[in-house]
Amino acid sequence: MGEEKLTYKQAISLIVLFISGSSTIITPGIAAKKDVWIATLISMVAITPILILFQRLLYIFKGKDLYDIIDIVFGPILGRVISLVYIWFSLHLGALVINNFIYFINIISLNETPIIIPAIIISFLCIMSVKYGIGVVGRWGEMAAILLVIFISMIVILLIPSMHIENIQPILYDGIKPVLRGAFSTFSFPFGEIIIFTMVFTSFREKEKPRIYIIGMLLGGSMLVLTSLTDVLVIGADGAGMYYFTAYTVVRRIDLGNFIQRIEIFASLMFLIGGIIKISICLFATCRGVSKIFNSKNYKFSVTPMGITMFIMGTFIYESIMDMSSWAIEVWPYYAFPFQVILPIIIYIGAEIYAIRNNKRE
């Protein structure tokens, strides 16, 4: 397709931002209450075999994305049906993230502004980013990931005086069941969503075997553990579960005299950058799939119509932020599981059979 290749650093940066995109403003796994950080660690361990599976697919089919692999393994008819399923998943996920951020913007600052206005701006930025290509998105992501790590580290340090260790004690007080529920939620959001990158990543500038999924998950997951632990230490488990945008609420508590305050403005900016990157990756994956369905070598013809579709879905998919929160907590983990686990395992089994028959197994 004539697209720029990413470096490993850019690919890892995009995964880190993808994980941190909306999970930095919406605390995943809050069902585990004060043990949410343990739930996050469990979900990181649970997602690792799936990520190894993704890496194996990249290794067997060098230079191919998930859509190509599906077509090779299952043939043009069944392959296109499965590809359509993943096109829907990436389109739907992008719309959900748009919805997350337009409500975030509406609630924290532009209360009187119709939500369609920030939706238009965010969608336009994402459409332009995808039109410029994955190379441009990767370079932006590399820079933004460094800023995000620095910013989160600074926030955690500044919040140390407001932390109360008793907020996470005693550990596992409510038993293991809430932790497992929280781990299942965090598994699907955000870690399971990394499957989107199998539709985007094909080859890289470096020749070594990529370990991008594991490294990106570990870095992004570490930041998620840090932010969720900070949220609970500062405002407690009940407080973390009370707010829609917990991290933003916690950052607002930073007030060191007249020297450092109102830092939540910068927090909002970093959250939005992560969100735009995540939406752009979802749109990129959607358009790559559409181009494969229509046997086109250039995905860019579908960027604008798919971007507009994603914008419309993201603007009107929920009637209120309560509906959005309810879907994310109660429905999304079960809805996403087939896309994130069941189908990838089926595809992997088919890929290994194909590799054995064609002497591609190493």
Automatic annotation (TrEMBL):
Membrane-protein topology: Multi-pass membrane protein
GO BP field: spore germination
Phylogenetic lineage: Bacteria, Bacillati, Bacillota, Clostridia, Eubacteriales
This protein's GO CC annotations: membrane
UniProt key word Transmembrane: yes
UniProt keywords, alphabetically: Germination, Membrane, Transmembrane, Transmembrane helix, Transport
One Pfam family, short name: Spore_permease
Organism: Clostridium grantii DSM 8605
Entry's family note: Belongs to the amino acid-polyamine-organocation (APC) superfamily. Spore germination protein (SGP) (TC 2.A.3.9) family.
Compartments reported by the entry: Membrane
Superkingdom field: Bacteria
Entries under InterPro entries matching the protein: Spore_GerAB
Transmembrane segments: 12-30, 36-54, 101-128, 140-160, 180-200, 212-245, 265-287, 299-317, 337-356
Protein name (record): Spore germination protein KB
